[in-house]
Amino acid sequence: MNAPLGYIGDKPSQRLIPVEPIVRLEKVSKTFPGRDGQPVTALREIDLAVPQGSILGVIGRSGAGKSTLIRLVNGLEKPSSGKVIVDGADIAALPEAALRHARRSIGMIFQHFNLLSSRTAAQNIALPLEVAGYDKAEIRARVEELLALVGLSDKRNRYPSELSGGQKQRVGIARALATKPKVLLSDEATSALDPETTRSILDLLARINDELGLTILLITHEMAVIRNIAREVAVIEGGRIVEQGDVFEVFTRPQHEVTRSFLADESGRALPPYVQSRLTPEATPGSQAVIRIGFRGPHATDPVLARLARDLAIEANILSGSVDEIAGRPFGTLVVGVPEASVSTTLDFLNKHGLDTEVLGYVA
Amino acid sequence: MSPEMINLIAASTGETLYMVAVSALIATLFGLPLGVFLATSGKGELFAAPWVNRVLGVVVNATRSTPFIILVVAIIPFTRLIAGTSIGTNAAIVPLTIAATPFIARLIEGAIREVDQGLIEAARAFGATPLQIVLKVLIPEALPGIVLGLTLAIVSLLGFSAMVGAVGGGGLGDLGIRYGYQRFMPEMMLAVVVVLIVLVQAVQSIGDRLARRLNKRIRHA
């Protein structure tokens, strides 16, 4: 098998060479014993590769299996079958002592932070170092470094109960980075935070990825997290990865129903209620077709509707629209209504201009 | 109240404090590891040993359901083996310790089980051994609860210690029975009860204050 392509360094523009991904799941399945004796399958035949230095987001609804997936990577769960390779070692096959050692190079942050209430910020960050047997002077120096990295030097002696959610997660991140891991696992790390705090935590993670070259594997149910930080995405549903690839590609040309539903949650993607309620799947004479147009990259700024009117004399009726940024690239969505009779001409015209189109239905 | 009476009360109070302090100390020494083990040896837990857990649970329950006064009498041969005698304050420490150990174990088990499972997961995730998890995560996090549990146990021991008077254990209970009841001296009985109330009050407020100081989960003004 050929090694999959991965990015070295941070930016996709940097040279693309084949490297062994730092985390690789091969045909991983996980079955739990159910309550009524019926086994419950949480994951089925998962194949996933996280290239070194990348940020890969796994998005899924609750119960889709994403929590189980991330816990396989540091051996908190064992796969029922398949392999979990992290930095060259098969995590599932390691004996306990070796597994504990391996976990020092896999940091993890949690939705509810999981900080010790009896320890201050600095003492929480010191804990993994104490456990790993560092001496006092080393611990003190490293903790200072980490406090500065996450911007909490002035809060070192505060207990978690005296910190805000965002500050607690910063402590969590510093603790996860204490033993200089190669991979950071993020388990819904921003799900308990407000949007603004989420943004600042994501910025911090992106900075860590950039400055330390740390690989980040995150799971989330929030599109915004993926859009803001991830470079690659895997969509998980019913224990299977249904779609996987470059974030921009996947979210601008979603193939799977679940991916579309995540996109529909985003502002500007949803139809206005007055259109939604009148939408029918079949055309009737004189009705208007509702078309979603996706503008990607270079086309995002084309005056395509003006041309449509000028060249073909088709007047499109704008129903909703937005311009988003996905993985740092602009992506526009426009929902328009055109007379049912000119649908095919319009679609041909738009597709010829390199735009993605989707007929959502008809409005009488 | 006569000086003799005051001397008697002072001596008995000393005996009670001695019995309670020594038995509480020894019972904690045994009860703490037992409680930690009970809290961590269930199915799928840190030191998973479901069968041992179940057997210990039954033993603990059996000891706790035996009425104290019966326990005192039933273990006299054992007491004699340990203390060299079956009467007196030192002898009384043996049944007190045996009664308090499973009680303390259950209280500590409860306090440990209150610790957020997420903390165990986090500690496992950064490579802590089960023993490190117990020493650096579970016990420190459960400490306020453990202190409250021990306070409760000491208060209970004060009550139990009154009963060992029945086998010549000495202490305030013994004094109350022999003078207050058998010699019909109500003022002695009253004095004994007042001293016990003061002791219980003192132990409880020290325990509460310590637990509050250790609890960092709540913001302090």
Give a written overview of the molecule:
The complex is a heterodimer of chains A (364) and B (221). Chain A contains twelve helices and 16 strands. By secondary structure, chain A is an alpha/beta fold. In chain A, strand 11 and strand 12 form a beta hairpin. In chain A, helix 3 packs parallel to helix 5. The longest helix of chain A has 18 residues. The N and C termini of chain A lie far apart (55 Å). The N terminus of chain A is likely disordered. Chain B has 221 residues and is mainly alpha-helical. Chain B has a single domain, classed as MetI-like (MetI-like fold, Orthogonal Bundle). In chain B, 80% of the residues lie in helices and 0% in strands. Chain B contains nine helices and no strands. In chain B, helix 4 crosses helix 5 and helix 8 runs antiparallel to helix 9. The longest helix of chain B is centred in the N-terminal third of the chain and has 38 residues. Chain B is elongated, with a radius of gyration of 20 Å. At the A-B interface, helix 2, strand 8 and helix 3 of A face helix 6 and helix 7 of B.
CATH secondary-structure class of the largest domain in chain A: Alpha Beta
Q: Under the CATH scheme, which architecture of the largest domain in chain A would be assigned?
A: 3-Layer(aba) Sandwich
Give the total of domains of chain A: 2
Largest sheet of chain A: 6 strands, mixed
Provide the succession of SSEs of chain A.
Answer: EEEEEHEEHEHHHEHEHEEHHHEHEEHE
Structural class by sheet pairing and helices of chain B: mainly alpha
Structural domain count of chain B: 1
Top CATH class of chain B: Mainly Alpha
Rough shape of chain B?
Answer: elongated
User: What is the CA-based Rg of chain A, rounded?
Assistant: 24 Å
The residue-averaged pLDDT of chain B reads 93
What CATH architecture of chain B would you give? Orthogonal Bundle
Largest sheet of chain B: none
Largest protein-protein interface: A-B, 32 and 23 residues
Estimated radius of gyration of chain B = 20 Å
